[in-house]
Design a protein that fits this description.
The structure holds 2 protein chains of 2 kinds. Chain A is of the alpha/beta class. In chain A, 37% of the residues lie in helices and 25% in strands. Chain B is elongated, with a radius of gyration of 21 Å. The N and C termini of chain B lie far apart (54 Å). The chains are: A alpha/beta, B mainly alpha. Chains A and B meet through α2, β6, α3 and α5 of A and α5 and α6 of B. Chain A: It is found in: Cell membrane.
């Protein structure tokens, strides 16, 4: 591993364990994500990559181990945790746009309620973000009136509206029809190029290869291999990774 | 037509008015209690959840008439005195509040978990996500069952005659038991039935309007 090792990690995870009942979902996870780095988590279903992603803003609690974001340990509960989450954008597999709010309200809610941004200013910024994700005409419609790809781009705009230090994507294209996947990946790729720190859980190997600084391969709750995309895809070191790649890259 | 028709209508009208305001005020009390209960039910603090559950079990499993008797006869014994209509409103409100709480809870449970997760992920606190995301979406779901509770309350309110509040049914009984037998039995029965139906129809209509007003595109 060469020059990508960060000086000031944005996310630092050390010795993290998590159980769901009898299932040991995360086993002694150590991982750091540098400022501006794009880390892509890949691996088979049930490998713990989504769970790991969700521990970073404490949507999942951990049984043991330490997690810091921007140098600060994750608060347990309450307003301090809310403040930390405000700094960490999150995009979900199923979009999770607020169903009773318009697209514009979805994006401005966080800035207005959490950041205390004046409404007019929040709306101006929201419209800029909508333009950036290619949805300028959709400010006043409801989520149910949009396609999956459009909803996911709104969800990205909603995350960006908080000016996050870090954006997390938990299988952002897994629930999309094939023809809508690229419109979402393009937005994410632009973000990566602009220097956003990103943690991305995905099955899109093409995206991992083009956008990632580092690929983290997980299986059965463990980090099996960490490498640059070229190293990982061209010359995987572990048998587990070779096996996984042979299955996903055949078509 | 019926004997002393004008007198009967006046008496039943007064009773109906009492039924209406007792119903509406006690329903308002029930809504407040129900909202407090549901916030406690979904609270991260277990004592709050425990207390809400205890309240709900108590008031759902004790007959309304017993609740009214406990308030009306029991509390003055320990030095808490109030007019009988106060006990009527409190009894109906506290009893119905337990059901309102359960109704609101089922409404909240009907909202996909992802909505709450997204709310937390953008940094809303527990109470902010309840207020801005979960409750507004739940309201639409719970209006029809709340409407049913309101109609049930109209009918349950007849029980307060047992603690001396002269609402619609109590008026009807007074007319039937009139010393001078001035009123026709079937006239009173029809009058009281029509009054209850009218009250229920009007309230149902208002519930339907509320349902439409809270609809959003999905």
């Amino acid at each position: 591993m060469e020059a990508t090792q960060p000086k000031t990690p944005m996310v630092s995870i050390s010795g993290v364990n998590k159980h769901f009942g009898d299932l040991h979902a995360l086993k002694d996870i150590d991982l750091t994500v540098g400022d501006g780095e794009v880390v892509v988590l890949i691996g088979p279903s049930g490998s713990g990559k989504s769970t790991l992603c969700r521990t970073i803003n404490r949507l999942e609690t951990v049984d043991s181990g330490d997690i810091t974001v921007a140098g600060k340990p994750l608060p347990a509960e309450g307003r301090a945790l809310a403040n930390l989450r405000a700094d960490v954008g999150m995009v979900f597999q199923h979009f999770n746009l607020f169903a009773h709010l318009t697209v514009l309200q979805n994006i401005t809610l966080g800035p207005i309620k959490v950041r205390r941004t004046p409404k007019a200013k929040a709306e101006e910024r929201a419209r800029q973000l909508l333009e950036r994700v290619g949805l300028s005409g959709k400010a006043d419609v409801y989520p149910s009136q949009l396609s999956g790809g459009q909803q996911q781009r709104v969800a990205i705009a909603r995350g960006l509206a908080m000016d996050p230090k870090l954006m997390m994507f938990d299988e952002p294209t897994s629930a999309l029809d094939p023809e809508m996947i690229n419109e979402v990946l393009d937005v994410m790729h632009d973000l990566a190029r602009e220097g956003m720190t990103m943690v991305v859980v995905t099955h899109e190997m093409g995206f991992a290869r083009r956008a990632a600084n580092r690929v983290v391969f997980m299986a059965e709750g463990q980090i099996v291999e960490t490498a640059t995309p070229d190293e990982f895809f061209d010359n995987p070191q572990t048998e587990r990774a070779q096996d996984f790649l042979s299955k996903v890259m055949t078509h | 037509m019926f004997d002393n028709f004008d007198l009967m209508v006046a008496a039943l009208g007064a009773g109906a008015w009492t039924t209406v305001w007792v119903t509406l005020v006690s329903f308002a009390i029930a809504l407040v209690i129900g909202m407090v209960l549901v916030v406690m039910h979904v609270s991260p603090a277990w004592p709050a959840r425990w207390a809400a559950n205890a309240y709900t079990q108590l008031f759902r499993n004790v007959p309304l008439l017993a609740v009214l008797f406990i308030l009306f006869f029991g509390l003055p014994q320990v030095g808490i005195k109030a007019d009988n209509w106060v006990w009527a409103l409190l009894g109906l409100g506290m009893y119905t509040g337990a059901f309102v709480g359960e109704t609101l809870r089922s409404g909240i449970n009907s909202i996909p978990l992802g909505q709450a997760e997204a709310a937390r992920a953008i940094g809303l606190t527990f109470s902010q996500s309840l207020r801005s995301i979960i409750l507004p979406q739940s309201i639409r779901v719970v209006i029809p069952p709340l409407g049913s509770l309101l109609i049930a309350l109209v009918k349950n309110s007849a029980l307060v005659l047992a603690i001396g509040v002269t609402e619609l049914t109590a008026q009807a009984r007074r007319l039937i038991e009139d010393n001078e037998s001035r009123f026709d039995l079937w006239g009173v029965i029809i009058g009281v039935t029509v009054s209850y139906l009218l009250i229920a129809f009007v309230l149902s209509y208002l519930v339907r309007i509320a349902e439409k007003r809270t609809a959003f595109v999905r």
